[in-house]
Structure formats: C-alpha cells, structure tokens
Write a structure and sequence with these properties.
By secondary structure, the protein is mainly beta. It has strands at 7-12, 31-32, 40-47, 51-68, 74-84, 90-101, 106-114, 123-124, 126-133, 140-144, 149-159.
Length: 161
C-alpha cells in the first residue's frame, strides 16, 4: 500500500468483454434512446481506489459508436461528465453533435486533459458517465468502446474508509 502523501498514477480501462475479437475492438452493452430529446446514460463508472486525495491532473479518452434505428439519418448529441463523489456533475466536454448517423455504426471520440481543481471535480474518488440523446423516439442505439480510458494522478492523503 502507498504511504500517505505519495503521488499515485493510475490508468483505468473500464470496458471489459468476455470475448476476443479479430480487430481487438470490444464494446460495452448496447443502449437505446427511448424518449425523444432526453439524455440516456450510455456508460457509468465509479473510480474508488483505496486512497483518497487531491487530483493533480486527469486525462480522458472516450470512444463510442452509434447507429440509427429508424430509416432517416439521425443526429446524436453526446457528452461525458465527472464529479467528485456526491457532488454536481461537471462536463468533460460540452454537448457535441454527431451528424448523419445511419444504420451502419458511426464512431465518435473525445480525448484530452480535464480541468482539475474545480469545485465538483477535485478529488479522488469520483464518478464518470457518458450521456447521449437524439430527437427521435427510439431513434438511436449507442455502445461504448474498449478504447475508453482515463489516467489520473493524485496526492494520496488518506485511506478510504
């Protein structure tokens, strides 16, 4: 176990699949939109390591794939959020449109460093989620990709209870 006041650096690849694939790409559970213009949780994860502490920096790579369930092209709106446990959600990126989603799967990716030390995302333990929506009832299906990951560096200050 790390000593208190030690920097911890952890990378997490939370998407797991039971089967290997020819191209190495695996996906989480497929999720459908069921109500027009209402966000649906595509994926959520709680990062709960044995030591708490102040986040120095965090890097996120988020991959997803979407397909239309209706005849027309769809526009998917998606975003990812984080929060220190029991705080309000903070956007990792603002709502972003993915245009011309058709019957074949269309990939989307966002990555970069999250601004740490903000009021609702400043400490380890934290929650992470990906949301999406479309304007059509039962219009889109989404799935999170196994390239989704985050890396977080923090100063271990106290053992989790």
């Amino acid at each position: 176990m790390p000593e208190i006041d030690e920097y911890l650096d952890v990378s997490v690849y939370p998407i797991k699949s039971a089967y290997l694939t020819l191209d190495g790409v695996q996906y989480g559970t497929q999720i459908d939109t069921t109500v027009a213009n209402r966000e649906v949780v595509l994926y959520e994860y709680s990062f709960e390591p044995p030591f708490h502490g102040a986040i120095l920096w965090a890097y996120f790579l988020i991959g997803a794939s979407f397909t239309s369930l209706v005849a027309s092209n769809e526009t998917v709106v998606w975003r990812a959020q984080v929060r220190t446990v029991k705080r309000d959600w903070v956007n990792l990126f603002r709502k972003t449109n993915i245009y011309n989603v058709k019957a074949s799967w269309k990939d989307a990716k966002m990555e970069g460093y999250a601004r740490a030390a903000q009021a609702n995302f400043s400490r380890v333990r934290f929650d992470f989620r990906v949301l999406f929506q479309c304007a059509t009832l039962n219009g889109v299906r989404g799935r999170i990709k196994n390239n989704t990951m985050f890396r977080v560096v923090w100063l271990a200050e106290e053992a989790a209870e």
